[in-house]
Amino acid sequence: MNRDPNHQLAAVMAEAGASNKGLAKRVREVAQRHGEHLGTTHVAIQRWLDGGGIQRQTAAFVSEALSDKLRRRITPKDIGFPGAALAPAPAVGMPYAGSLTETLSIFESLTHQRPEDGPADDPPLPDSDVNSAALAWLVSRPDGLPTDAPATRRVGMRDVAAIRTAAGFFMQLDFQFGGGHAHKAFRHYFREDVLPLLGASYSAKVGEALFAAASEMSQLLAWSAYDSGNHALSDRYMMSTLRLTQVTGDRMMGARILTNMSHLANYLGQVPRAMTLARASVEGGKAGSTPRAMALFSAHEARALSTAKDHKGAARAMNEAERFFERADSADDPEWLSYMDEAELIGEFCHCFRDLGQGPEAVRFAERAVALTDPKYVRTLGFCRMVLAQSQLLNGDLEEAVTTAGLAVEAGDALQSARFQRYVGDFQREVSTHATNPIVQQFNGQVRDAINRLDDE
After folding, report:
1. 339-349 pLDDT, tens digit each
2. Which of 8, 109, 115, 376 is the most core-located residue (most Cβ within 10 A)?
């Protein structure tokens, strides 16, 4: 049977300067990176050039190998295999991506997943993958921007401004409604309007700004998945975002992502992981972060140490965070760090004192956090009020604690957050020893009514 030669594959190979043997070697290496074993040789490459068929996954590996060589994204369709799909992200483990191309492929897969699909069934990333990622990032050098990549589209600062505007819009939706609100539109925008730009053509100045904006948006996707209760999906977004920061060597954003991963691990009770990630963020962020950012990283180290009941270590980390924050106005911060104000720092500290069982200090800091938090941050204010309630309970002030928790639940909008619902549930369990007390019964009824109203809205 006569077959038409695959001119598209031949053209891309010529552009990459890849021989049949050279490409075969690269394909084998890519497959191994994905945990697969392929016996691809120069004979197979020639067969594909002559128009022979190819397995879908193999085509994805070929496109990734050529992408790595050209330092721009090549899809199976670009090399004459339109029916092939990109290599999927692994379902359980997800090793730290070896290249920008692989990172974009993983993002492509993640943006097709809905947070509401199977958060209980999808296992978390293994400690080995997370620790390897943190170490790889800590010792990494910047990949460098593929600024010389030929592309049909030239990206400018106007495109970057559009991404930042969209990110601000989605962030506001998340602050106001939580619970992964608008996640579908968010991930569609990221997949269709942001990812393609990363493989396009741009100047060094535009590229730096573009990758910073893309990292900010992808970490917002991670947070919205976290807030909706899909922790496995959130972890995968965070790890891929960490790899994205390595392209330009953005140490401050990378350290922030490690802090976010520590936050999630701490929330899930993975205390050793939380401490490792928090320390990595502090150590990795030192070289290129502002004092305000370092205050954030140190505060989250204190959070992890407090969960571990390390009183001495937590006190040290909180003192370091305070010293960094005292110099917060001495440097220009990126826009994404604007939320890290005194209210945020005090809010982190009140969590620490609560977890350390220091009731009086926890109440004092939680009261300040509630007073300082801007009411527009509904979810944050709800968290602070619930920590205040738990702290009052630590001091034996049952009636005051229940009244405070009632104010948090009354706000309503915070209940959209799976994280906030957990705070409320934890408090209900803590007061369950007083189940016959009328004020506790009234509070439990208030929670039921609030959740029922939420279902009707």
Report:
1. 899 999 999 99
2. 115
- Token output for 116: 């509401």
pLDDT of amino acid 317: 98
Instruction: For residue 56, name the pLDDT band (cuts at 50, 70, 90).
Output: confident
Tokens of 280: 């990595």
pLDDT tens per residue across span 379-419: 888 999 999 999 999 999 999 999 999 999 987 656 677 88
Query: Which pTM value belongs to this model?
Result: 0.80
> Backbone phi, then psi, for 364, in 5-degree steps?
-60, -45
Report which residue type is found at 49: L
pLDDT confidence bin for 262, thresholds 50/70/90: very high
Angle between helices 7-16 and 56-70 (to 10 degrees): 30
